[in-house]
Amino acid sequence: MSDRLDWESRAGKPLQGSLRVPGDKSVSHRSLMLGALAEGRSHVRGFLEGEDTRATAAVLAQLGVRIETPADGERVIHGVGLHGLRGTKQTLDCGNTGTGMRLLAGLLAGQTFDSTLIGDESLSKRPMRRVTEPLAQMGAEIDTRDGLPPLQVRGGQALRGIRYTLPVASAQVKSALLLAGLYAEGETEVIEPHPTRDYTERMLAAFGWPITFAPGSARLSGGHALRATDVDVPADFSSAAFFMVAACIVPGSELRLLSVGLNPRRTGLLHALRLMGADIRVENEHESGGEPVGDLIVRHAPLHGIELPEALVPDMIDELPVLFIAAAVAAGPTVIRGAAELRVKESDRIATMAAGMRAVGVAIEETPDGALIQGGTLNGGTVVSHGDHRIAMSFAVAGLLAQGVIRINDCANVATSFPGFLELANGCGFALAQAG
Ligand code: S3P
């Protein structure tokens, strides 16, 4: 974990201007993994320079993959081919990244060598049976500490394809199984009751691996090869989300967020905010690297509370903390249900948000799978982020409308997904400072 860092957020100016948030975290992780397993050289542009994606790059380097950084936000990956990774006796440190650890578990299950994946304090508390159990059905051997990291992956197992229905909506689990499926005998099929982000499927297809997929299912067979492919990473919708909510709630704001990835499995927050009365336009829509991308023009508008449609939850799973903030300043109550997955993210995001919101005077009732939030005014106060990047940035947004200063403890992990957040935020009207 990075050094301790606290922030203070207070009312700023109306938010104005154009900005591009850093590259998509999910796409950046996958570009490294597929680039590593491909034959040839893949050039990635728009790569997220976050601690999470750098951790994944470092793990792949330990496994013998040469990855160059010709410039900030770029990587050139010298692929070693599907069977070219080299084992190491060192532990492989995934830091704070659940995506890194779970996807690598699938990828490493198919190797001839043993590996040990470890993580930081927060990752060491996150559930791993959701990947190790279906991987075991495929023939993988992975030991955990009671379902938690470290993961000891035993190599040299003959994997076989399975047909697996996901019990929880999780792109990480789906992706882990598809990556193991590259090494499996026969067909691997993942069925999703609630469709999740399909970057692994899209990128496998772009790298030339035969795959059949549609919302709710993905199917591939082992025994093919990946061809090196250049990847253009769009700006991360989940990072843009903080600016979207900020511009919605601060009177006089108009922000243009450039080249944001608009994969339909990610844009639930856009629909939720529009249901609440937001004024958000999409312009300059186009395709980039097989992904829909566009500019979001967000203007202030009075928001009202909603009953969040449960079907939107998987499409905005990482944006719910900042939706809590929108709900806190909207007129009337907002009800969120069907979001129990929030409890096993970088922190228990329902409990962490509820405690933080109470500390700044919001009436919030926590439920097992969501919350009931009464819109009103925000006071100053001190909130604890529990080292969770998205909680810290959500309360930075809350500070814009607070009657006093919101002090946010433990913000260093913002660097996992959004390096430069503070500077970018202050550049468009936030008043966010490191606390002394
Ligand atoms: C991700 C999937 C989601 C999301 C995470 C990134 C991915 O996790 O919360 O930030 O890149 O596949 P789950 O699969 O646990 O829902």
Quantity of strands, as a count = 23
Overall tally of structural domains: 2
Strand order of the largest sheet: 21-22-1-23
Number of helices: 12
Rg from alpha-carbon coordinates:
21 Å
> What separation lies between the terminal Cα atoms?
20 Å
The largest sheet is:
4 strands, mixed
User: CATH superfamily assignment of the largest domain?
Assistant: Enolpyruvate transferase domain
- Name the bound molecules: shikimate-3-phosphate
Structure description:
With 436 residues, this protein is of the alpha+beta class. It has 2 domains: 7-23 and 234-434, Enolpyruvate transferase domain (UDP-n-acetylglucosamine1-carboxyvinyl-transferase, Chain, Alpha-beta prism), CATH 3.65.10; 25-232, Enolpyruvate transferase domain (UDP-n-acetylglucosamine1-carboxyvinyl-transferase, Chain). Helices cover 29% and strands 26% of the residues. The protein contains 12 helices and 23 strands. A 4-stranded mixed β-sheet has the order 21-22-1-23. A 4-stranded mixed β-sheet has the order 2-15-17-16. A 4-stranded mixed β-sheet has the order 4-5-3-14, covered by helices on one side. β10 (163-165), α5 and β11 form a beta-alpha-beta unit. The model has no long low-confidence stretch (mean pLDDT 97). Bound molecules: shikimate-3-phosphate. The site of shikimate-3-phosphate has 10 residues, from α5.
Task: Kindly summarize this structure in a few lines.
The chain is of the alpha+beta class.
Task: Pick out its properties.
alpha+beta, UDP-n-acetylglucosamine1-carboxyvinyl-transferase, Chain, 2 domains, four-stranded mixed beta sheet, 12 helices, 23 strands, 26% strand, globular, binds shikimate-3-phosphate
